[in-house]
Amino acid sequence: MTQPNPAGLEDVVAGTSEICFIDGKEGRLLYRGYDVRDLAEHASFEEVVYLLWHGRLPNRAELDAFVQQLRSLQALPGQVLDLIQHIPPATHPMAALRTAVSYLGTLDPDQEDQSQEANLRRATRLVAQFPTLVAAIQRVRQGKEPVAPRRDLSLAANFLYMLRGEEPSPLHADVMNVALVLHADHELNASTFAARVVAATLSDMYSAITAAIGALKGPLHGGANEQVMRTLLEIGSPDKAEAWVKEALAAKRRIMGFGHRVYKTEDPRATILRRLSRKVAEAAGDLRWFEISQAVEKVVTAEKGLYPNVDFYSASTYYVMGIPFELYTPIFAVSRISGWTAHVLEQYANNRLIRPRAEYTGPTRREWVPLEQR
Ligand SMILES: CC(C)(COP(=O)(O)OP(=O)(O)OC[C@H]1O[C@@H](n2cnc3c(N)ncnc32)[C@H](O)[C@@H]1OP(=O)(O)O)[C@@H](O)C(=O)NCCC(=O)NCCS
């Protein structure tokens, strides 16, 4: 690790955690010791959630029971559905999600109970309800009725079903499952750190998650995937990519979906998402967005030595699946709620207030000047 840099807390170790390990040099990512590449190939998102919370993979009976529990908790309270109807339609779905989650906290059936068991119940409700919430927010924005969750679909397939009102193809359900697995956790990223800071004051889980949603929303974090798609649409065709990127770099603009604070090589999630992007594009017979992405990647890597991150190829993947781009960051949240809650539970289990110091760079002692003399 290089010398820590207080600007942006770069390389500062701000705590211990048993949940997630990133090797930024080798481009490796482990959840509880399991390589994310293995999990993406073999695991359901539900299995990964169990793994993040309990530190081990579930056996068949444990997984079945957990899946049933999640399915029994998917429906939203009527008050939340009413609230969604009152959110102005132009509101970004991430802002709507933040507001709805905060409201969910006021309806929490365990309100007075801050035990670890009650917090695990809260976490389970949140993971179960996030897909329903995001789908309902989007349907209402489009002037449509929310679609009730089904109990016979995986979390990934059910999310697409509630969004579209029809069951997804096995390919789309599978791709969504892998995308959720890949976004589930990522150590002390900005939103997870925000959640842990709030939890460390012994505030409630909903406050921690609301803060995390606010942090994820920003374009330097989860908001980048939506910006990537806007970039691809602006470029429009692969032959225009080189000139577009060179002009943007000359104007010192950031190319969204590239660079990472921790990875100094390719993000392993980007490698998998590049494959998925090509796969859904080939199945749809529409390679345009994949090809523009590849053309952009080639120029950015050659010009700046920057690699794509998790947000780059997820954009073209979701676009070909017909998902509107304002939903790309909320989809990130549908997955990352698993990691956020795992970290909040870990924080509560061994808590100390998080309160760093700042190096003071302001003026030293000044003399008071009365108002009339200023
Ligand atoms: C992720 C990110 C915020 C990390 O930032 P960081 O660790 O603070 O890195 P810095 O901002 O210090 O950047 C280091 C250098 O790389 C350049 N750089 C980093 N990401 C860049 C990008 N996406 N496009 C163009 N240049 C970039 C910076 O301009 C800087 O160059 P300089 O030293 O010549 O000024 C940054 O790479 C970024 O803004 N990426 C685009 C947004 C994005 O995709 N976010 C999702 C992250 S998963």
UniProtKB/TrEMBL annotation:
In the record, biological process GO terms are: carbohydrate metabolic process; tricarboxylic acid cycle
Q: Name one GO molecular function term.
A: citrate synthase activity
Q: Which UniProt keywords apply?
A: Acyltransferase, Transferase, Tricarboxylic acid cycle
Superkingdom to which the source organism belongs: Bacteria
**Coiled-coil ranges from the UniProt annotation:** none
Q: Tell me which InterPro entries the record gives.
A: 2-MeCitrate/Citrate_synth_II, Citrate_synth-like_lrg_a-sub, Citrate_synth-like_sm_a-sub, Citrate_synthase, Citrate_synthase_AS, Citrate_synthase_bac-typ, Citrate_synthase_sf
Q: Which reaction is recorded as catalysed by this protein? A: oxaloacetate + acetyl-CoA + H2O = citrate + CoA + H(+)
| Family statement drawn from the similarity comment of this UniProt entry | Belongs to the citrate synthase family.
- Name recorded for this polypeptide: Citrate synthase
Q: Which organism is it from?
A: Thermaerobacter marianensis (strain ATCC 700841 / DSM 12885 / JCM 10246 / 7p75a)
